[in-house]
Amino acid sequence: MASxxxxxxxxxxxxxxxxxxxxxxxxxxGWALECAGSGAPGxxxxxxxxxxxxxxxxxxxxxxxxxxxxxxHVQYVNETVATANGYAAISSRGTFVLKPDxxxxxxxxxxxxxxxxxxxxxxxxxxxxxxDMVHMPTGCGTxxxxxxxxxxxPSKGEIDIIExxxxxxxxxxxMHTSDNCTIAGSTQSGTLKQNNxxxxxxxxxxxxxxxxxxxxxxxxYGAGFNQNQGGVYVTEWTSEFVKHWWFPRGSIPSSIxxxxxxxxxxxxxxxxxxxxxxxxxxxRNMSVIINIDFCGAWAGNVYRQYTNCxxxxxxxxxxxxxxxxxxxxxxxxxxxxxxxxxxxxxxx
Length: 348
Ligand SMILES: *[C@@H]1O[C@H](CO)[C@@H](O)[C@H](O)[C@H]1NC(C)=O
Ligand SMILES: *[C@@H]1O[C@H](CO)[C@@H](O)[C@H](O)[C@H]1NC(C)=O
Ligand SMILES: *[C@@H]1O[C@H](CO)[C@@H](O)[C@H](O)[C@H]1NC(C)=O
Hints:
- GO terms for molecular function: hydrolase activity, hydrolyzing O-glycosyl compounds.
- InterPro entries: Beta-glucanase-like, ConA-like_dom_sf, Glycosyl_Hydrlase_16.
- Keywords: Hydrolase, Signal.
- The structure is a single chain.
- By secondary structure, the chain is an alpha+beta fold.
- The protein has helices spanning 21-38, 57-60, 79-84, 222-227, 254-257, 279-282, 296-302, 319-329, and strands spanning 48-52, 61-63, 74-76, 88-90, 96-98, 113-115, 117-120, 127-135, 142-149, 158-163, 171-176, 181-183, 191-194, 207-211, 231-237, 242-248, 271-273, 275-277, 287-294, 339-347.
- It has one domain (52-347): Jelly Rolls, CATH 2.60.120.200.
- A hairpin with a 4-residue loop joins strand 15 (231-237) and strand 16 (242-248).
- The two termini are 19 Å apart.
């Protein structure tokens, strides 16, 4: 692309007429996602590159079974243990389920709760990620996530698409990067909470936005999400931005159900991550991860603030231990702590 004259950089490629051969040529040169992002007529459509379905998740994802880097009360199990115990399974209604052990107690001080953390074999650089889910983990002590992670954290980035804790009714979408990346938080329906993505400041809270459980973004997380049979999260990652849309079940655009997402019809995104940030150097070679954690660095530290969760009555027991005391001795309470997925489609 270096040989292109400078003036070409300013041509609104997306406005070339449909069928113009240049659109295709430019697309293959790596510019197309900017166009696709605009959704303007003539933009080359995304094409399916990975179609994760209940029957092939286990072939296309690996199980991470080492210690939890976020200090949760979990033991992530390998595929053999997960499938033998039904922690990863195809449900009777044909969905893909990921769940923790909900039958045994795993008290504080001992091993954590057997759970799962799966990682895609394939890695991505740009793309459109369409996650259709009918149920997500919720309840006191839970810390589930669906996210993208690059190598050598945080130098190749982290994009958290679904994440929250305990009885939250709102999703937190955030990014974590190396230094020099801030986002503006404009043109989005979610609420910007923090604009600096650098993992080395603000206690690694990253740059994040909340999806308030309001009329614009109903039932986007937790119990409300599950009562409404979930919905679809769409993430579009280009050289210029990472945008996320939320569509609750009943309001999923027909272009998505038809398998040809038409971004021009999606409206204002829930979260629009762009600003003073060189997206292409901050995010590279990212894997998809889905995991179910308990307590740990986020959920444990804020457990005492969730007064609708049972607390250890001893006031000298800190937030983290109060959380672990609860989940470790109440396996029944984890019955809603599962993911149930229809599909994940990655387009490029
Ligand atoms: C899976 O984990 C179990 C329990 O730790 C272990 O006994 C088994 O060898 C592991 N299997 C594989 C294939 O790593
Ligand atoms: C951030 O910007 C400063 C100033 O330009 C530069 O010295 C530093 O190397 C940058 N750091 C990263 C991780 O990009
Ligand atoms: C991305 O992965 C490819 C293939 O493993 C590797 O050649 C390349 O150096 C990686 N790029 C970055 C920036 O990590």
